Amino acid sequence: MGLKQKLHTLKEKYKGTKMAPAFNALHTFLYLPNETTHNGTHVKAADDLKRTMNTVIMALLPCLIFGIFNGGYQHHLAIGEIEQVTSFFDATFWSWDNFVVGAWKIIPLVLVSYGVGLLIEFIFAIIKGHEVEEGYLVTGMLVPLIVPIDIPLWMLTIAVIFGVVIGKEVFGGTGMNILNPALTIRAFLFFAYPTWMSGDKVWVHGAVDRAKEMAAGADVDAISGETILGSLAQNKAHAYDLWDMFLGFIPGSVGETSTLLILLGGLFLIFTKIGSWRIMLSSVIGALVMGLIFNGVVSQEWISESSKFFSLMDVPFWQHLIIGGLAFGIVYMATDPVTASQTNKGKWIYGLLIGFISVLIRVFNPAYPEGVMLAILLMNVFAPTIDHYVIQGNVKRRAKRLKAKTA
Amino acid sequence: MGLLSKKDRKLILDPLADDNPITIQVLGICSALAITAQLKPSIVMAISVVFVLGIGNVVISLMRNIIPSKIRIIVQLIVVATLVIIVDQVLKAFAYTLSKELSVFIGLIITNCIIMGRFEAFALGNGPWKSFLDGIGNAAGYGVILIIVGFFRELLGSGTLFGFKVLGDSVEKTGLYAIGYENNGFMVLPPMALIVVGIIIWVQRSRNKALIEEN
């Protein structure tokens, strides 16, 4: 008896009991369900929710793998064991040592994120008696990619519970949430445990412990693990060139550093028609416009070099796209079909404002030199309003046309 | 409570649970969010509101037949304001630091919707004894929620209760902090108070399905 058959008999055995949704979920996750609908005419298409989710996960995998190597690389670079790499296929970067260190820290993040999140989904499915929804599959992969590498696992556990229960389940589960669950989880971490989510130490594995040792008087090399945005916010120079930023050899949250891989993932999502190109493009335009405005302020000399906003305003406008988490947010989070605008015109407005506000918060928020998380959450809240006005506008326009025709 | 008839008992007990001013009528939310970051101010606030609403209800009830209905809101405001000023002065005299902590929110009891709501809905139409019970009951219902929220916010946000370090010392790393526990900074911020109130409402409604509105 094969595995599929066994699962099928299990499912039949538990049919009608409280635990049924849990077994059904396991069955449908591994195989195509063996049920057909009983009545009505249906469109037969292969792209169900499960496949949609899996496509996004495929687009995220390169970021995860790069993040694992980068985690080890930043660690070894900070303790001075290896030199900075110069090209994408450099063997010092893709080394076994880097992989082991990165995997040691990052795989537990992935496991905790999926384990806790899916457990809650199962519990809610059993309590409410509906089928387990696949909604957590993407969230579970996004969460480890947008947190700092050294975040304690118990904090992640609490944040995931909060994000899934308060961010999603209370609204009615997958497809009903107002806010992007992955960003809800990150926002919770950010406000609850700011010392683990910002500053110059959390982005490189081991930097927090080294700082403690140094405070205790140990003789260890300390290389700042500050992110580029963090350095700029303090008007300090950073040691990274444009290729580092584009390829991703920089400190940051686990999976958001490599703009190249994010770009490839974005193209993949557009090609498979999972992610909306309108949102991605308009967010990029929004960020560029805001960047240009700030560049203009600098070139008009409306702001002096001693201002604390000078460095961030002075960044060439297009560089905003390759530093920080903007690219990751635009490609994987802003395009979340549940929380984004649904109408095409709405998507343009929604995206433009995300890019615009991201760069705005980046420059003007000294405590937290990154804005894409808050920008997307804010626009998530406004998305239904945008849609409402787009639809009403359309209704009005057509009513007018009808009137003109019939009059 | 042998003293009270069944009806009177209902006046006191209903607002504590199934007719709670915060969780069911969703009144008085602003102060519930603002001053519940710690347990002590929550309790002081609860006592102050019990005092103001208990006495205020009696006063309005005694005056209910002589207040011209056109100016009744102004009369009600004067009664609340008088009582609130008494509370404020007492706090300033005997608990100065606490009154600093509660700052403007003692004064804002005047605008607490629960108080005007009870005056309008109950004291204007009922005798002083009943109004007194109703006032005490509603203020206590408000206070209970304040204390629950304050308890969780202080415990999880600062790791203390009434200022005592019940979870250990966060600087010296004793107790829970020794194994890596950290305070949840989000708990201290007002949005989390809203979420805690939301969770209380959730728990209450799933225990008593009759409270869920049909729509």
Notable characteristics:
heterodimer, A: 407 residues, 2 domains, B: 215 residues, mainly alpha, globular
Compute the CA-based radius of gyration of chain B. 19 Å
Stretches of chain A where pLDDT is under 50 for at least 5 consecutive residues are none
- The average pLDDT value of chain A, as a whole number, equals 84
Could you state the order of secondary-structure elements of chain B as H and E?
HHHHHHHHHH
Secondary structure class of chain B reads mainly alpha
- β-strand number of chain B: 0
- The rough form of chain B would be described as globular
Give the percentage of residues in beta strands of chain B: under 5%
List the chains of the largest interface with their residue counts. A-B, 13 and 11 residues
Find the structural class of chain A using helix and strand composition.
Answer: mainly alpha
Straight-line distance between termini of chain B = 38 Å
Which shape of chain A, going by the Cα principal axes? globular
Largest sheet of chain A: none
Main beta sheet of chain B: none
Helix % of chain A is 55-70%
- The assembly state of the depicted protein chains is heterodimer
Proportion of strand residues of chain A: under 5%
Amount of helix of chain B: 55-70%
Domains of chain B, number: 1
Task: Describe what you observe in this structure.
The complex is a heterodimer of chains A (about 400) and B (about 220). Chain A is mainly α and about 400 residues long. Chain A folds into two domains: about 50-260, no CATH class; about 275-405, no CATH class. Chain A has helices at about 5-15, 20-30, 50-80, 95-130, 135-145, 155-165, 180-190, 195, 205-215, 230-235, 240-245, 260-270, 275-300, 310-315, 325-335, 345-365, 370-405. In chain A, helix 4 packs parallel to helix 6. The longest helix of chain A is centred in the C-terminal third of the chain and has 35 residues, at about 370-405. Chain A is globular and about 70 Å long. Chain A starts with a helix and ends with a helix. Chain B is mainly alpha-helical and about 220 residues long. The N and C termini of chain B lie far apart (about 40 Å). In chain B, helix 3 packs antiparallel against helix 4, helix 3 (about 40-65) runs antiparallel to helix 8 (about 130-160) and helix 4 crosses helix 5. Chain B has ten helices and no strands. Chain B has one domain. The interface between A and B is medium-sized, with 13 and 11 residues.
